Amino acid sequence: MIELLEIRDLRVTIGSTAAVRGASLAVTKGETHCLVGESGCGKSITALSVMGLLPRGARRETTALRFAGEEIGRYGEREMERLRGDRMAMIFQEPMTSLNPAYTVGSQMTEVLRRHRGTSRAQAVDRAAELLARVGITAPGLRLGQYPHQLSGGLRQRVMIAMALMCDPELLIADEPTTALDVTVQAQILRLLAGLQKDLGLGILLITHDLGVVARVADRVSVMYAGEVVESAPTAALFAAPKHPYTRGLLSCVPVPGKVKRDEPLGSIPGVVPRIQPGFTGCGFRDRCAWANAACAGSIPRRGAGEGHEVLCTLPPDWSREAAA
Amino acid sequence: MLRFFVRRFAVAVLVALTVLTLAFMLTRLSGDLAISIAGPNATAADVEQIRQVYGLNRPLYVQYLDWLGRALQGDFGESYFFRDRVAKLIAGRMPVTVTLGLVGLSIALVVSLPLGILAAVKEGTWVDRLVGVFAMIGQAMPSFWLGLLLMIVFGLQLAWLPISGVESWDGFILPGVVLAFSAIPSLTRLTRSGMIEALASDYIRTARAKGLTRLSILVKHGFRNAAIPVVSIAAVQLGFMLGGSIVIETVFALHGVGYLAWESISKNDFPVVQAVVLVLALIYIGLTLLADLLNAVLDPRLRTG
User: Fold this and answer.
1) Could you list the residue ranges that cross the membrane (chain B) (predicted)?
2) How near does any CA of chain A get to the CA of B206, in Å?
């Protein structure tokens, strides 16, 4: 079966930092794939690489970057322009500043459709109104004529989502779409994304550092650390049996009702994410890992650990049971 | 929007009144008007007669109110030297100065907007630095000197353009270019910094994520926001150009308001000097008000906030 999005061995260097070092992941049609990890681990850079939106001075290399079976890694700027906003769309973490303050909601929404489909203004306005209603905005006619500063953060993020859907994309990349929002609004937006995915058959690549979000919406999870995807698994399998020491550490930081004792401190991972120079080899986590050994400085094997479960680690597959014992 | 407009308008009126008052006071502070009108060879009786004729023997506040009332009706009295109504003199000279100002501003915009955008897009490269050097040279070059250089090259050596007077439209080109150089450096730098800020913003990333064309991203999304401060500075610059064209009108022998001011100053023709200062100040106030309004039109946050 053809994956909607397939990234194989993505490497991005920005100046003297290796931001992404050989990350691989795949998003299937109709699936929500969560990419999790700490700030600075390369999640956003991975997403921007797919869209062809890397900052100036960033260098991207891949073995394969396929979208709906097409190799887009060699696409030029013109070809990427035609793809972006049409077949793949992206929403961002900052709803307050992601809309242009000088134009109305309607003008910003319709220009996507007019650019990619050459639709008439009237038809584009109808489509925009329909989508605003679809993302749960009341009085879409009124909102179309309003400017971003007249809307709340939650409304602006809904507008961003509606705008991303204007051309019926196959892939939606959402980079921490709920991080800047109130908890109640977060829940609404997540429910909205889940509903849209089910109705429209969207593939969603959701970037987050919030494991609560992952548990709620993800079909699959990829855990990123220091520019690598260290573990990838179906959500249930990952939460039940994390195979990478970093994933285990990440999960132990989250309080689970019933499991956490009142007087015990929550888990934490000592140290900080290292800044990786090009030419670095071995596991990026080894300096913070309690189980690190001599093999961790060499090349790290990618191993299967169950149905659709892969891990990038030198430890034997059953180490975690021993560690827990 | 209406409240914003009313408030700005009220401020403009207050500033205009202050300027009127200052203009009146300055002429009174510069010595006994009657003596300077009468000239060096006048007798005491002559001076006294002039005082009577011009009403300079009345109390100061009466003179002020009388003058203010007339000024508000556009009556600035009579020129001592030209033997003509001051208002008529200025009105006759205004077209040359306004044309020159508009030509200058147009040239300045045509040069500085593309240069500023180019420098921002190529930020940090040699193109950007070249634009910066050009702006610096423009800033540092005295306008009379640039005027003379252009006259020598284009007027005398190449003989493409007239070096003085505006008998035909091409007489405005050289002085227009020189005048433009007073605004080009600041407009270029403002466009550049505004564009750099706009291009680094999240909404530009959104525009790119929407797959818009490069032109649409640069102009529709980037420049539209960078233009807001540029427009207001351009309006204010036009005010500077209208008032600051004294040197250029003198160099190119254009009989505009600036030239009139220079003539009147050298001949102690107080009513004319006073009126020119006033008219230019009022135009400046008007342009500043216009800049505020344009700002509100361009920035929806001001308009609908």
Assistant:
1) 98-121, 133-160, 172-190, 226-252, 272-294
2) 6
